[in-house]
Design brief:
six-stranded mixed β-sheet, four-stranded parallel β-sheet, 15 helices, about 35% helix, SBP_1_CS, Spermidine/putrescine-binding periplasmic protein, transport
Length: about 375
């Protein structure tokens, strides 16, 4: 169960792909257009208005956060056909919404920090709680999150941590903290990856040095950058998703990743394990929101209420491998899933985690160091 001080924000991905789209089909994404099944790839360059229809719902979601079984079940229950466009980062999603996508979608799936940003930009509709059922059955810390007090604009869908996945057969000892990467950089040379994410990577180095993940102290951030420069020659790549096949084939020994991704990959190879570094890491939440000007808001509320149902949320945990904030869903999970510490880590682990909070204009400092680190 996560701590009561849930984070203000999730991540600021450079080009992350949180989860695999239609499991094991990442290689086909670039050419995918299967709207007949309810799936499409969004055209990020433009966002044409879409007229609302009582029997159609357009959603904009992370890859892998829904599947055909879910879409079919909703259609059978409501008579509403869902068309799901997918995005690979919060920034990609925001760019589309600002280009007119608010008129194209009834439901969007931003991470917690992006809820803050979209609220400040006036892009979200306040939720009518009288049209929602199940908010009172969320875990208490999700009923009044600091990124959206009172769930005025958002409903939490999933949450998780960031850590290290590693191959137990290829490492002489298991990593316990971020400093393992530095202490074993010769052994790990070109056999490890870090996320393609400035705040996650800089945050890991900051936590290792004993600083906040959200430091706005220029000297502290500089020290974190200098530590990463030391490690860079040993890093195979900065990637948020491409580590998956490489880890499964044994080409990588360790990779920085999200807990939901780790849990999914480990199910395919029991030689792999996941750890949240003991000096601390990030804790994230993904949500459901209704943008201003959304077509078919009635269908949007039906979708949110559908996902708040305990049996529906529980089926998503077991099929799509992410953690649920729903008490009802958690109670319906098998003991094996409830006791899975990758998806539901202990309170002691979660107390060491913090969210990636907005840092305002200081983000320019992070971006400058990130550019220097990843270029060349």
């Amino acid at each position: 169960m996560p701590p009561t001080n849930l984070p203000i924000s999730r991540i600021f991905p450079a080009n992350s792909t949180r989860r695999q789209f239609l499991k094991n089909s990442a290689a086909t994404i670039s050419g995918l257009a299967v709207s007949s099944c309810g799936w499409r790839l969004a055209d990020v360059q433009s966002a044409p208005p879409v007229k609302g229809s009582a029997d159609q719902l357009f959603i904009y979601t992370w890859a892998g956060y829904t599947d055909d079984a879910l879409l079919d079940r909703f259609a059978e229950k409501t008579g509403i056909r869902v068309v799901a466009d997918v995005f690979s980062s919060n920034e990609e999603m925001l760019a589309r919404v600002q280009a007119g996508g608010a008129r194209a979608y009834s439901i969007i799936y931003p991470s917690d920090y992006m809820v803050v940003q979209m609220t400040e930009l006036g892009l979200l509709s306040p939720l009518d709680h009288s049209s929602l059922g199940g908010l009172d059955r969320l875990k208490k810390q999700f009923q009044n999150p600091v990124y959206d007090p009172g769930n005025r604009y958002s409903v939490p869908l999933s949450w998780g941590t960031t850590g290290l996945i590693y191959n137990t057969e290829q490492l002489k000892e298991a990593p316990e903290d971020w400093n393992y990467l530095w202490e074993h950089k010769k052994e790990l040379a070109k056999r490890m990856t870090l996320a393609s994410d400035v705040r996650e990577v800089m945050g890991a180095a900051l936590r290792m040095l004993g600083y906040s993940l959200n430091s706005t102290n220029q000297e502290q951030v500089k020290k974190a950058y200098e530590k990463l420069v030391e490690l860079k020659p040993a890093i195979a790549s900065f990637t948020t998703d491409a580590w998956r096949p490489q880890m499964l084939t044994g080409d990588l020994k360790v990779a920085m990743c999200y807990s939901s991704d780790a849990n999914e990959v480990i199910s395919d190879n029991d030689k792999l394990k996941y750890v949240v570094p003991k000096s601390g890491s990030s804790l994230w939440t993904d949500t459901l929101v209704i943008p201003k000007g959304a077509p078919n808001p009635e269908a949007a509320y039906k979708w949110i209420n559908f996902l708040l149902q305990g049996d529906v949320a529980a089926s998503l945990v077991e099929r799509l491998s992410f953690s649920t904030p729903s008490e009802d869903a958690f109670s319906l999970l098998t003991p094996e899933v409830r006791e899975n510490e990758i998806l539901f880590p202990s309170e002691d682990i979660l107390k060491k985690c913090e969210g990636v909070a907005p840092v305002g204009k200081f983000m320019e400092v992070y971006d400058r160091y990130w550019t220097q680190l990843t270029s060349g």
